[in-house]
Amino acid sequence: MQPADFIPIIILVLVIPLVLFFFHKAKSKTQKTKKYPRGYYMSLGLAMGVACGVALDNIAIGVAIGVAIGAALEKKHEKQLRPLTPKEIKSQKQIILILFIGLSLLVALFFATMYFMKA
Question: Count of domains in the chain?
Fold first, then answer.
C-alpha cells in the first residue's frame, strides 16, 4: 500500500470531527432560537460531498458535489438561517486554522514520503 493511499483516510479524520463539532455547537444554539446559523447546510453538504469523494476515490469531485448540495440546501432553508454570533465566528476561524495546519502537514508528509521513496 502506497503512502498516497492514506490521504483520503487522513482527510476524513481531519474533516469529520470538525464538522461534528460545528453541528454540535449549532444544535445547542438552534434549540433556543429555532434557527440554524449561516453555513450550517453548506457544511452539511460539504461533509456529505467529502464522504462521497472518498467513496468515489476522487476528493475533488466529492467537494464539488458537496458544495453544490450545500448551496442548494442553504437556498432552500434560507428562512431558517440566522447570522453567526461573534463566538461562532471565532470558532469558525479556529476550525479553518486547524484545517489549514492539518492539510499543510498532510501535504508536507506527502512530499516527504515521495522524496524518500525515490531515494
Answer: 1
Give residue 78's domain range: 3-118
User: Per-residue b/e over 77-87, b at no fewer than 16 CB within 10 Å?
Assistant: eeeeeeebeee
What is the mean predicted confidence (pLDDT) over 7-19? Answer: 68
pLDDT digits (tens, 9 = 90+) for 19-64: 677 666 666 555 566 788 888 888 888 888 887 887 788 878 888 9
* Angstrom distance (rounded) from CA 49 to CA 68: 9
| Residue 10 and residue 52 in contact, taking contact as beta carbons nearer than 8 Å | no
Cell 448551496 sits on residue: 71
Beta partners for residue 36, in sequence order = 81
